[in-house]
Specification:
single chain; 168 residues; 4-stranded antiparallel β-sheet; 8-stranded antiparallel β-sheet
Length: 168
């Protein structure tokens, strides 16, 4: 082990991050270190040590480039995962817009350029400005397993979607 990189290893093993297992190199889990111990003391004396971490139940695609979708017309997209996904959708346009995904309508009012609907964290925003009050729906958008039709009404120039496909 390159002992000159101990601080880098300690920083990497502190907190929240992603982990890829060799049995599934195309998938990544979100995880957090469970045993917050002073790794630098251990690393100075040992080459082997136990790291405990917890993984969230879903795995995601390692290849993030495959997950970016731009739409300029209504279409159908297919959820590649095995469970619903929680997308991040940026709507470019102006005024009042309604996006319909798999039969469920999501209304956004007073769009000025763009707004982002982040289903993962359940927030609507433009840059660092909170736009939750402009969003009207019972729940945040989800892409169900299989086919999902997407359409809209209003002045929309495009949708940029990070679908966050996930697997159990």
């Amino acid at each position: 082990m390159d002992r000159s990189r101990i601080d880098d290893v300690c920083a990497w093993l502190n907190g929240y991050g992603e982990v890829i297992f060799s049995s599934e190199p195309d998938k990544v889990y979100r995880a957090f270190i469970k045993n917050q111990i002073p790794f630098n003391n251990i690393l100075l004396n040992l080459n082997d040590f136990l790291v405990q971490f917890d993984c969230f139940p879903f795995k995601y695609s390692v290849d993030k480039a495959d997950e970016e979708i731009t739409l300029t017309t209504a279409t159908t997209i297919y959820n590649q995962g095995t469970i619903y996904s929680e997308p991040i959708i940026t709507v470019y346009g102006t005024g009042n817009v309604t996006i319909t995904i798999h039969g469920t309508a999501y209304a956004i009012s007073e769009i000025d350029g763009y707004v982002t609907i982040n289903s993962e964290i359940q927030e609507v925003y433009k840059d660092s400005t909170n736009k939750n009050n402009s969003f009207s729906a019972l729940d945040f958008p989800k892409f169900q397993e299989g086919a999902n039709t997407i359409s809209w009404t209003g002045s929309v120039t495009r949708l940029e979607i990070k679908p966050n496909w996930r697997w159990l």
